[in-house]
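# nightly structure sweep
# worker-07 picked up a monomer target from the shared queue
# config: single-sequence mode, recycle default, output format = structure tokens
# input follows
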Amino acid sequence: MLAKLFSVNQQSLDYKKEIIGGLINFMAIAYIIAVNPLILHANGAGFPLNAAITSTVIIIIIMTMLAGFVIKLPFVLAPGMGINAIVAYTLVLHDKLPIQTVLGVILFSSILLFIFSVTKIRQVIILSIPYTLQVSLSAGIGLFLFLKKKKNINLIVANPNTIIGINHLSLDIIISLLGFLVAIVLFIKQKSYALLLPIVLISIFNAIIHPDVLPKVFFQAPDFSLFFQVDYLAALKLSLLPTILLLFLVNFFDATSTSLGLLSQLKFNSAQEKEFYLRRALITDGGAGILSSVVGTSPSVIFVESSAAIQNGATTGLASVVTALLCIPFVFMAPLISAIPSIATAPILMLVGLLMFSHIRKVEFEKFEEMVASFLTIIMMPLCFSITAGAVFGVVSYTLLKILLGKKNELSISLVIIAILCCGWFFIE
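# output follows
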């Protein structure tokens, strides 16, 4: 029965490999259960922590389970890194939007993604946005995350002479940096638990030296206070259009590139068959964002960490179902998760930031105008403390330079339209 339900192309179902693959995927993405709520919480200025934990775990369970039954491939869906930074640091901290409005922005950007995924419009968008801007956006978010987390552990401090400076080393900073080093080593060695183990080790050590941080109870009923809190009307303001487009584009390219990368690791009988599963993956990914807004968290995406299960022999959605089932106990463990200190999650976010920043190597630096657009995209994010700012500067500068250099043939109509819309941001800000 399970073989008929999950197998792809009538392949034989290796239950052992699928179960082990599901366990490996769980270890690879478990850090999200702790990291995503803490990002959205934004040091107390954002989403309520316990509610964010509940929403994060619920969306992982639902969407990963759906991936198993709908996509039928060993994919895990969870709130995406990078896009959660946009939600927390740009929409909540910088723009100071109410959480309900933020959820509305997530909803409309996800509806766009869903519509474009069920049609062939996505192909037009992929072709219209220069690859330089795509990879620069990812690199910029990576740099933003890296610097933000270093600031959060007080390694980077304000300096009136140099704008920023390096703080004196404290025990917390040393512990966090050691965790960062451990995460790098484990990642290089391709360990599936590379992002999870440093969190566990640092949290245990922190609890030993600071026993007062341990909660009085480890389990409690889930907090559903973020469910169905979407403010549709507030999110329809013209001033929020660039942000909606930004969330859409980030999610769009992330979903497409990740899905293509994961599918390339699996065997299919034909290109048409591969396209069939790609379409399923993208539609599921688009729907995940819509459901994420309803549940009360940042958009969920297909995680590249799903490759861990694939590399260990998993080929079907049964692995996804196993991963989803392993996440269920964490719905009731908010007190324990909330006790995880920022010095434990900061190393992981810095590593994620580095991985995202590594996309800069794909920029065509021999074309100076593209290098300029890439530089502005990346550098304006931390300087303005706004990911939207980086995207706007990148799109507008790229378009203007191509026009001024007489290279209008390298621009698509859709990119010009996006650039014009982005220009409105300068007057709104």
